[in-house]
Write a structure and sequence with these properties.
Layout: H1 16-51, H2 58-61, E1 76-80, H3 84-100, E2 105-110, H4 113-123, E3 128-130, H5 136-146, E4 150-154, H6 160-168, E5 172-178, H7 184-190, H8 192-199, E6 204-207, H9 210-218, E7 226-228, H10 243-255, E8 260-266, H11 271-284, E9 289-294, H12 300-310, E10 314-316, E11 329-332, H13 339-342, E12 348-351, H14 364-368, E13 373-375, H15 383-391, E14 396-397, H16 403-411, H17 414-430, H18 434-445
Parallel strand pairs: 1-2, 1-4, 2-3, 4-5, 5-6, 6-7, 8-9, 8-12, 9-11, 10-11, 12-13, 13-14
Helix pairs in contact: 3-4, 3-18, 5-6, 11-12, 11-16
Length: 461
C-alpha cells in the first residue's frame, strides 16, 4: 500500500469559503486558548507554588527549544507520548523504529513531568523534551528547529494548531494506538464540524479496535486513512529491574512477610477504601504488607495525612533504609517509575482509578507477571482490555462496598489466585503483535535519507 498523499486546500476561487472557514476556526481556537490561559493563570501559579506542578519544562512548553535536542544533523522522527502510559506503550515501537532506521534520529516529547522522567530514563535526556503548548509561535519554533520528516502521535492528542502547522511543513503525521473513549466520543461528535477539518491533517490513523476506527470515521476522519493495528500496550515488556524490588525481596524473605497486596495508580477517594480493607487483612495476616502507589505525585502529602489518621503502621519508600521491617504495615511508594516492576512481588494487585468514576488504569503491567488482578467497576478508559480479561476469567471486578471482603476471599484461595494470574498472562501472550503491525505502516511513510548525513532542506512554516 502506498502512503496516502497529504490533503492540500486548493487555491481556486470555489475553495476560498472552505479555506477561510478553516482559518477562522483556527483563529477562534487560538483566541479561546489564550483566554483560557489568562483566566487560569492564577490557578496555574498557585499549583506551581504549592506543589511545583507545571513548573518543570515551562520554557520548553512556550517554545524555547533546548540545545540538547539540536545537536544532531540526522533527519528527525518526532514521537509524542503524553504521559507514563503512552511512553510505556511506544517504548518497543521507538526502539525498533530507531534500530531499523539508523539514519534517522528519534526524538520523544511528553506533556507530563512523570512521563518526561520515564522517557529520559529510557531514551536519554538528549532525545526527550516537553511538548509545546498549542500556540502557533511555540509550535513553529519546534518545527523550524527539528524539521521532522515524520511525526508520530500516541493515542488521541488532537491539537489543532500543531496538526495544521505540522501538516504544512510536509512532514508525515500519523496517530498510532488511537482510541476514542466513551467519555470523549459524544464531545468529539458534537464538535465534528471543527474536528473533521483538523483530522484531515493526519496522514494515517492506526486504531486499537474496530470500535475506535468507526468512531474516528464518524467524527470526520477519512475512512481510507483509518485502519486497525491493535493495542500497543499488549506489547509492553515487563519492567526492567529496579533496585527497590531487590531490597523488598530480601526483607520479605527475611521477615516472612505474606501476603503482599500492591495497590497501584490509586486516585482520590480510593485510598480510604484500601486502608480500611488492609485493616481487616492484618487481623487475619499480621505479617502482611500493602504497597500503596498513588497515581499523581502531587497527592502524596494528602495520602500521608490519610495514613497518619488511620493509626495503622506505615512507612514511606523515600525514607525507608532498605533493612527496616515493614511487616503489618502500609508501604507508601512515593517514587516515580518503580510501580510496574513492583507488581511482580504482589500476591494480589489492585489497579486504581476504578473504584471511583475515573475510567481506570492499565491492568497489563501486573498481568505480564501472572499476578492476579482486582479492579473496580469504573474501567471505561480500558474497556476493550478489561472486557477481554473478563471473558477469559483473568480479572476480578468488584464494587467498592465488597472490595474488602473480596480481597480477603482471594487471599484465602491460593488456587483461585494462580488461575487468575495464569489466565491474565495467557491473554497478554495471545494478543501481542501491534508493535510490528504499526512499525510496518510507519516504515511505508518514511523517506530513506541519503547515507551522508546532511542538514535537512528547510521547508516553509
Amino acid at each position: 500500500m502506498s502512503p496516502t498523499k497529504h490533503l492540500c486546500i486548493p487555491l481556486d476561487r470555489k475553495s476560498w469559503p472552505l479555506k477561510y472557514n478553516v482559518l477562522s476556526m483556527h483563529l477562534l481556537y487560538s483566541a479561546l486558548l489564550t483566554l483560557v490561559l489568562l483566566l487560569g493563570l492564577p490557578w496555574w501559579l498557585l499549583q506551581m507554588l504549592r506543589n511545583g506542578k507545571y513548573r518543570a519544562g515551562l520554557g520548553e512548553r512556550f517554545g524555547l527549544v533546548p540545545d540538547r535536542i539540536r545537536q544532531d544533523n540526522r533527519p528527525v522522527i518526532w514521537v509524542h507520548a503524553v504521559s507514563v502510559g503512552e511512553v510505556l506503550a511506544v517504548d518497543p515501537l521507538i526502539r525498533q523504529l530507531q534500530e531499523q532506521n539508523p539514519l534517522y534520529r528519534v526524538l520523544i516529547s511528553t506533556t507530563t513531568s512523570t512521563g518526561q522522567k520515564l522517557a529520559r530514563d529510557r531514551f536519554g535526556a538528549k532525545n526527550v523534551f516537553y511538548f509545546p503548548l498549542d500556540f502557533a509561535f511555540a509550535v513553529r519554533r519546534y518545527l523550524s528547529a527539528l524539521r521532522p520528516e515524520m511525526i508520530v502521535i500516541a493515542e488521541t492528542e488532537f491539537w489543532p494548531n500543531f496538526l495544521r502547522l505540522a501538516h504544512g511543513t510536509g512532514a508525515r503525521v500519523l496517530v498510532v494506538n488511537a482510541r476514542i473513549s466513551d467519555r470523549s466520543f459524544p464531545r468529539y461528535r458534537k464538535w465534528r464540524s471543527f474536528i473533521a477539518p483538523m483530522l484531515r491533517n493526519v496522514d494515517r490513523f492506526l486504531t486499537q479496535t474496530d470500535v475506535d476506527r468507526g468512531r474516528l470515521i464518524e467524527i470526520g476522519a477519512l475512512a481510507e486513512r483509518v485502519s486497525v493495528s491493535g493495542n500497543l500496550k499488549f506489547d509492553i515488556m515487563p519492567a526492567k529491574a529496579v533496585t527497590i524490588v531487590g531490597h523488598l525481596q530480601v526483607v520479605f524473605k527475611r521477615d516472612r512477610n505474606s501476603p503482599i497486596v500492591v495497590c497501584g495508580s490509586t486516585v482520590e477517594g480510593e485510598e480510604p477504601i484500601l486502608i480500611d480493607s488492609f485493616r481487616n487483612v492484618v487481623k487475619w495476616y499480621p505479617n502482611a504488607v500493602m504497597i500503596l502507589a498513588p497515581r499523581h505525585p502531587e497527592r502524596w502529602p494528602q495520602v500521608v495525612e490519610l495514613l497518619r489518621a488511620s493509626k495503622l503502621p506505615w512507612k514511606r519508600r523515600s525514607e525507608w533504609n532498605h533493612l527496616e521491617p515493614i511487616g503489618g504495615s502500609i508501604f507508601l511508594l512515593d517514587t516515580i517509575g518503580e510501580l510496574a516492576a513492583v507488581y511482580q512481588l504482589a500476591t494480589v494487585a489492585f489497579v486504581g482509578g476504578s473504584l471511583v468514576p475515573r475510567g481506570g488504569h492499565n491492568i497489563l503491567e501486573p498481568a505480564h507477571y501472572a499476578t492476579p488482578v482486582m479492579v473496580g467497576p469504573h474501567t471505561e478508559n480500558f474497556r476493550e482490555i478489561v472486557d477481554l480479561f473478563v471473558r477469559a476469567g483473568a480479572v476480578n471486578v468488584v464494587t467498592p462496598e465488597k472490595f474488602g471482603d473480596q480481597l480477603l476471599r482471594l487471599l484465602d484461595q491460593p488456587a483461585k489466585r494462580v488461575e487468575l494470574g495464569r489466565h491474565a498472562a495467557e491473554v497478554v501472550r495471545a494478543t501481542c503483535g501491534a508493535t510490528n503491525r504499526t512499525l510496518d505502516v510507519l516504515n511505508q511513510y518514511l523517506r530513506q535519507p541519503a547515507t551522508s548525513v546532511d542538514p535537512p532542506v528547510p521547508r516553509a512554516l
